[in-house]
Amino acid sequence: MMGAIALVPAAGSGSRMASDTPKQYLDLLGKPLIWHTLNALHQVAALERIFIVISPEDEWWDGYDWDGFGRLVVMRCGGDSRAESVLNGLQALSLFTPSDAWVLVHDAARPCVDPAQVDGMIATLADDPVGGILAVPVADTLKREGNDARITETAPRAGLWQAQTPQMFRLAMLAGALETGMGPDITDEASALEKQGAQPQLLMGSPWNLKVTYPHDLQLASLILAARGE
Ligand SMILES: Nc1ccn([C@@H]2O[C@H](COP(=O)(O)OP(=O)(O)OP(=O)(O)O)[C@@H](O)[C@H]2O)c(=O)n1
Ligand SMILES: C[C@](O)(CO)[C@H](O)COP(=O)(O)O
């Protein structure tokens, strides 16, 4: 099995968390949230390096001891949006990484990712011509809002999935798609590939792999990790 690398965008401000500290550094079971994300990725043997993209203005990262994370490389090249942070990271990587290397982009804000699922994803997609993403099928009935929180429609949910990360693509293919398609509609890596007409594969993820977005997500993440004995 060939190796792969991880790219972890961690340059966001966490505005929906409404905290002065960016959410990736909020306390989660006695450690910064991002520690759990990096700890999970370090358990994936097929990941040769784990590159993390932080903001050039980040004043938190250097306050922690990261010595235990031997495969970690920090890049202070975060951008104004998630997609820009990912593209900046890919462009830096491309100076010393083969253009056909598999890159797994994983949100710093998803600390409960299961290393076994990441292992499975790398094995499943190894020979895929495009790549793919972890995702879960939509489970609830979907309502479209009109005015004043009144429902105008029940939207069909058949075939709809909620995208998660990691999202695994080849370095040059992903960088090219982000360069060409960059815009507010590019909220994940797959959307950049889709804009070019590619059809990334959907791989079954897990509801435990939540993105910490709002304050209650931090509580959920803490319950999930505590149940795993972390
Ligand atoms: N300019 C940005 C914005 C986001 N991210 C990262 O992308 C991931 C997913 O983004 P999101 O949950 O939207 O994080 P924030 O942008 O920090 O949150 P918010 O949208 O609430 O401000 C996070 O790990 C975040 O740090 C990034 O690297 N660079
Ligand atoms: C990439 C992502 O995690 C897929 O669900 C998500 O789109 C990133 O977060 P955002 O809130 O859309 O920026």
UniProtKB/TrEMBL annotation:
GO molecular-function term, one example from the UniProt record: 2-C-methyl-D-erythritol 4-phosphate cytidylyltransferase activity
InterPro entries recorded: IspD, IspD/TarI, IspD/TarI_cytidylyltransf_bact, ISPD_synthase_CS, Nucleotide-diphossugar_trans
Enzyme class: transferase
Site (Transition state stabilizer) location in chain: R16, K23
First and last residue of the signal peptide: none
Pfam families: IspD
Pathway: Isoprenoid biosynthesis; isopentenyl diphosphate biosynthesis via DXP pathway; isopentenyl diphosphate from 1-deoxy-D-xylulose 5-phosphate: step 2/6
Residues marked Positions MEP for the nucleophilic attack (site): R157, K211
Claim: Transferase is one of the keywords in the record: yes
Keywords in alphabetical order: Isoprene biosynthesis, Nucleotidyltransferase, Transferase
Origin: domain of life: Bacteria
Catalytic activity: 2-C-methyl-D-erythritol 4-phosphate + CTP + H(+) = 4-CDP-2-C-methyl-D-erythritol + diphosphate
UniProt-listed Enzyme Commission number(s): 2.7.7.60
Cell cycle recorded as keyword: no
Its job: Catalyzes the formation of 4-diphosphocytidyl-2-C-methyl-D-erythritol from CTP and 2-C-methyl-D-erythritol 4-phosphate (MEP).
Similarity remark: Belongs to the IspD/TarI cytidylyltransferase family. IspD subfamily.
Protein name: 2-C-methyl-D-erythritol 4-phosphate cytidylyltransferase
